[in-house]
Design a protein that fits this description.
CATH architecture of the largest domain in chain B: 3-Layer(aba) Sandwich
CATH superfamily of the largest domain in chain B: HUPs
Structural class of chain B: alpha/beta
Order of helices and strands of chain A: EEEEEHEHEHEHEEEEHEHEEH
Helix content of chain A: 25-40%
CATH superfamily of chain A: HUPs
CATH architecture of chain A: 3-Layer(aba) Sandwich
Shape of chain B: globular
Oligomer: heterodimer
Strand content of chain A: 25-35%
Radius of gyration of chain B: 21 Å
CATH class of the largest domain in chain B: Alpha Beta
Largest interface: A-B, 93 and 98 residues
CATH class of chain A: Alpha Beta
Number of helices of chain A: 7
Largest sheet of chain A: 9 strands, mixed
Distance between the termini of chain A: 55 Å
Structural class of chain A: alpha/beta
Strand order of the largest sheet of chain B: 5-9-4-1-2-3-10
Number of helices of chain B: 8
Number of domains of chain A: 1
Order of helices and strands of chain B: EHEHEHEHEEEEEEEEHEHEHEEH
Number of strands of chain A: 15
CATH topology of chain A: Rossmann fold
Largest sheet of chain B: 7 strands, parallel
CATH topology of the largest domain in chain B: Rossmann fold
Number of strands of chain B: 16
Strand order of the largest sheet of chain A: 11-10-9-12-8-1-6-7-13
Chain lengths: 263, 326
Amino acid sequence: MRIVVLTKPVPDPASGGERLGADGRLDRTNSPAVVNGNDEYVLEKALKLVEAAGEGEVILLTMAPATAPETMRKALAMGATRGVLVTDPPIGGSCTVATTRILAAALKTLEFDLVLAGVDTSDGGAGVVAPGVAALAGLPYLSYAASIEPDAAAGKVRVNRITPSGYDVLEAPMPALISGTQALGEPRYPSLKGIMAARNKEITTLTLADLGIDAGTVGTAGATTKVVDSRAPEPRAATRVVREEPDEAARQVVALLAERRLI
Amino acid sequence: MAGIWVHGELAADGSLAKLSTEVATLARSLAGESGGAEVTGIVIGADPAGGAAELARFVPRVLVVTEPSTVDHAAGTIVAQRLAALIEERDPDIVLAGAGPEGRDLAGALSALTGRGVLANAIALRGSPDGPIATHSVFGGKLITESALTGGRGIVTVRPNAVTAEAADSPGSIETVAPAGELTQPAVPIIDRIEAQGAAASIDDARIIVAGGRGVGGPEGFGLIADLAEALGGAVGATRAAVDSGWIPYSQQIGQTGKIVKPQLYLAMGISGAIQHKVGMQTASTIIAVNRDPDAPIADFADMVVVGDLVEVGQAILAQLRERSG
């Protein structure tokens, strides 16, 4: 079982340091990078599937600045076999269209049974790259997975896709691309042994030239979207603190609901 | 004349998603600010007639494509291919879709197939001489950004509750069309549809959400949360801690790895308001928190914080709500 996991280093949402630079792009200098939360859930699932299969590998595929190996080591420490990093200065500022093209091109250099991706990232959060990569790569696309059950003998994979009222059970031949959610299960903490081993794991670098992509069609130069303005949000009104007994506190809550026509 | 298209998202039962009625309403105001651009609804599905009729209440014209395969296959990629073919034939400037799971799957595949850019998760949208400008809340709500599409053309996904849906003065026309081309992407069969036991009302576009956190204490504690939600006509939400503890399904989780919601009222019961949860609910119009700890982070951004025991306060609120409704 060979599984590629799309992983993105993102500014740590808990750091409070995320900001935009003067160019309207993410300023990565001010907050530590972590593996995107939803990517950790699919990585955990990938590790479990390869462990259950008793053979195979988990390959991280990342498109990011050249500093990304630092973050990728955290995912390697969880148990991923090796990493592939697409990095090239002109990639900076890429929109989702370019990101999708680059990742789809990089996938062509790899052999796999499954590609897993988090349903979205905590920074961009568009949730459109995974379905786009599947379309460009011509892979069956199974999204919002709460479970992933490959059947290697039959060459098929079954996914429970979260719906508003429950699940749709989807089935597709492998190779396939699956976007997954937190419902796949809690990611493991890296062991000390895992952290040590990660230091020597291979991270291969690919450039735009390796992928045959013209630098002028990606990055800021080829971007299909542009941030034109940014501002601090309107501050919320001051908080009213109620410390009365339950009946009186409830009366004040209900009065506020009535005043705002919520009841 | 520049065209604005609205994707009419169909639920499993063939009805039009509420989110699509909001997106259609937004499309009309965007058209008004864009020199009278023509607004067209697009409905693609196995049995699209009902959804098309509903969407026609909101836009002057609806194009309908009957696509039988969506009845038992994952819809996103299939609808994207049909829509891409229509775009190729008719060349609209803007395609609007909802920013829920269906709209995202559609927008991603559509963007890849057409090369058009995506402004994702808009919370507002306005016209400008350079095309639509979308407003976004980023970095967990710490920053509001405005973004444009290069050349003023592309795809925009819109979050629930960006606007209140309002039907147009007169219903629009409905026209059946058949885009050229074959479906070349692999279709993914739906081999079963499972209704979760005790499935709760969807939080995605709920007007009122009553949410519980670790402070609720256990699955039985969510009984009170559900009672409050019912009394208020709302849906039940939860923090990741409550979901991880198995007290409530993941579908109800609000926050960074759950759903991002924007209800009129968010009643937070026993929720501390950690950043991972805050990012999912901070744009709610009114936030009321009941918490034992007056220093919990939620006190920094709630409109009202009741300091006290959530069971006692919750039951008192419930009793008064029931008294009011008689």
